[in-house]
Specification:
3 strands; Rossmann fold; 3-stranded antiparallel beta sheet; 145 residues; mainly alpha
């Protein structure tokens, strides 16, 4: 619905115009705390800046920079970022990264990490009460082999 509204409006020249188009497309009421265009602008920023690709490249560079037994600690605040972190850490801790359908391993991948915590660490209810911005935080830790 947002994409259709943007396409039908087509000639949008300011961020205010885009925010208004998004607001009308989702039937936003002022009772909601967050403006509906916030996520649209976030998605545009992530895509334009290539943030997820840069995050993966940065993680790989950090892993390569670690000495044996060095720890990589990553705190993410967005689910897309956390997915990239989780996938990189799992891949680099795995013996085989071949596609699941292959009957035998042909990748010759050597793990570079060992996962310190199998499960993601999230803030406690007490932490969220004292710091509401911590609500979406996810902490992952891995160690260089």
């Amino acid at each position: 619905s947002i994409a259709r509204a943007i396409i039908s409006r087509r000639r949008i020249t300011t961020t205010t115009e885009l925010a208004d188009v998004v607001k009308r497309a989702v039937n936003w009421s002022t009772r909601s705390r967050v403006h509906p265009a916030t996520r649209t602008f976030q998605a545009l920023r992530i895509a334009v800046n290539g943030e997820l690709d840069n995050l993966e490249k940065g993680l790989m560079a950090a892993i390569q920079a670690l000495r044996p037994n060095g720890r990589l600690v990553v705190l993410s605040y967005h689910s897309l970022e956390d997915r990239v972190v989780k996938n990189v850490m799992r891949r680099e801790a795995s013996e085989c990264i071949c596609p699941p359908g292959l009957p035998i391993c042909v990748c010759k991948h050597t793990p570079t990490l060992s996962l310190i915590n199998r499960r993601v660490i999230t803030p406690s209810d007490e932490e969220i009460r004292s710091n509401p911005r911590a609500r979406s935080a996810k902490l992952r830790i891995a160690q260089r082999i």
